[in-house]
């Protein structure tokens, strides 16, 4: 293997580990509100504005089907609702309800504590740089995937 392959493997394995760590932390934060981290992610995605399931999936980098399952559960529990989508008759918008907002508000205090703890452990500047580097990595991968899809 060459150095670039080693770096790709190291980046991928680190991100997979980070994903597991974030899911563990997220589940711990979400549990007192009676929701899962997956529910929290979908509600957070539509907290600012309603989105179609496909839009949520794109933003989260996961399949539309997995978002659809979570959205259906959230609607059944009254934490989200489906609304008509003026841009697309069949793809309804997912919108957070007052109950969903209340669940997220219950998470906020411990979420703030965890954010402070991580900033304290890394240092605020290193924390910001870490986010910037991960964002650049994601954008580079998006470009490569798009190039492969258009070539393909």
From TrEMBL:
<dbReference type="InterPro" id="IPR039422">
    <property type="entry name" value="MarR/SlyA-like"/>
</dbReference>
<dbReference type="InterPro" id="IPR000835">
    <property type="entry name" value="HTH_MarR-typ"/>
</dbReference>
<dbReference type="InterPro" id="IPR036390">
    <property type="entry name" value="WH_DNA-bd_sf"/>
</dbReference>
<dbReference type="Pfam" id="PF12802">
    <property type="entry name" value="MarR_2"/>
</dbReference>
<dbReference type="InterPro" id="IPR036388">
    <property type="entry name" value="WH-like_DNA-bd_sf"/>
</dbReference>
<feature type="domain" description="HTH marR-type">
    <location>
        <begin position="28"/>
        <end position="127"/>
    </location>
</feature>
<protein>
    <submittedName>
        <fullName>MarR family transcriptional regulator</fullName>
    </submittedName>
</protein>
């Amino acid at each position: 293997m060459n150095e670039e392959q080693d770096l790709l493997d190291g980046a991928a394995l680190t991100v997979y580990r980070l994903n597991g760590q974030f899911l563990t932390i997220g589940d711990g934060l979400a549990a007192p509100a009676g929701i899962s981290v997956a529910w929290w992610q979908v509600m957070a995605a539509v907290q600012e504005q309603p989105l179609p399931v496909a839009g949520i999936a794109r933003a989260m980098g996961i399949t539309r089907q997995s978002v659809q399952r979570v959205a259906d559960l959230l609607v059944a529990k009254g934490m989200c609702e489906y609304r008509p989508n003026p841009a697309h008759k069949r793809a309804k918008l997912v919108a957070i309800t007052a109950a969903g907002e209340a669940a997220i508000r219950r998470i906020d205090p411990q979420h703030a504590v965890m954010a402070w703890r991580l900033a304290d452990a890394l240092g605020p500047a290193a924390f910001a740089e870490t986010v910037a580097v991960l964002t650049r990595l994601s954008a580079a991968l998006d470009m490569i995937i798009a190039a492969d899809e258009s070539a393909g």
